Amino acid sequence: MSSGSIFTYVETKEALFHLVFVYGFGQLGEATPALPIATPAPGDTVALIEHYLSKVPMPRIPAALLEDHPADVGAELRGIVEERYEMLAELWPLLAVIERCAVDVPELEEFYYQRARLAYFGLLARYLDVRTAAGYLRAMPDAAVTARIITESIAWFAWKRHEGRDALLYDDDVVRRTVVEFICAALLEEPET
User: Fold this and answer.
1) 145 and 103 within one domain
2) d(Cα 7, Cα 2) in Å, to the nearest integer?
3) Residue 22 and residue 54 in one domain
4) DSSP secondary-structure letter at 134?
5) Which of 68, 76, 172, 177 has minimal Cβ neighbours within 10 Å of its Cβ?
6) What secondary structure letter does DSSP report for 98?
7) Tens of pLDDT along 113-161?
8) Which CATH number covers residue 148?
C-alpha cells in the first residue's frame, strides 16, 4: 500500500500512531470506525499508552516485598522472572513501537524511559537488595546492574529475538524455561551440605 493510500484511512500520521495503540490494546471494537480516522487531541496517545501499561498486572515484586521470610524464595524469584517474561512476550510489538517512536515524542520518552522503566528497575533492585541482605540470594556487586541484566536478558529472549533473524532458532517454551532457570540459578544460594 502506498503512503498516499494510507491517508484515505487516517487523517494524519498521528492518527495512524494512535490507531496502532487503540488496536494493540484491544480497544478498536467490532465496528469499523468512521474513515478517515481523526487525529487525536495532543497528549491523547501518550495518555492511552500510560493508561493501559499502568494496568498491566505485575504484582509479584510488591507482594514479595511485603514478606520478610518467604517460605520458598526460589518459587518467589521464579514467579517474578516468569511474570516479567510473560508480560514482555505478550506486549513486545507495542513496546517496540514505543521504543522506536519515543525519540520523536518527548512525553512518551518521559513516561516510558524516565518513569515506567526506571520504576521497574528500581523495584527489582530493591527486591534483590532485600533478599540478598536477608541471605536468600547470592550477593552481586550492584543490585541495580543485576536488575538490568535480568530485565535485558528477559527482554532479548521474550521480545528482541523476534525482531531479527533469530526468531525461529529456538522454541518459545524452551526459551522461556531456560531463561527463568538460568536467572534463578545465578541468584539463588546453593544449599549448604
Assistant:
1) yes
2) 9
3) no
4) T
5) 68
6) H
7) 999 999 999 999 999 999 999 999 999 999 999 999 999 999 999 999 9
8) 1.10.357.10
Query: How far apart, in Å, are the Cα atoms of 137 and each of 70, 71, 151, 170, 184?
Result: 12, 14, 17, 29, 9
Is the domain of 47 the same as that of 19? no
The span from the CA of 37 to the CA of 16, in Å, is: 8
Average pLDDT over residues 106-113: 97
Computed over every residue of the chain, the mean pLDDT equals 94
- Domain membership of residue 193 (yes or no) is no
| Residues 73 and 164 grouped into a single domain | yes
Q: Once rounded to an integer, what is the mean pLDDT over residues 152-179?
A: 92
Question: What is the predicted pLDDT for the residue at 58?
Answer: 95
Question: If you search the block for the grid coordinates 526468531, which residue do you land on?
Answer: 167
Same domain? For 84 and 23 the reply is no
CB within 8 Å of 21: residues ≥ 6 apart: 45, 48, 49, 52, 94, 97
Count Cβ atoms within 10 A of the Cβ of residue 114 and give its class: 0-12 exposed, 13-18 middle, 19 or more buried: exposed
User: In whole angstroms, how far apart are CA 75 and each of 61, 68, 160, 185, 191?
Assistant: 12, 15, 26, 12, 15
Does the pTM exceed 0.85?
yes
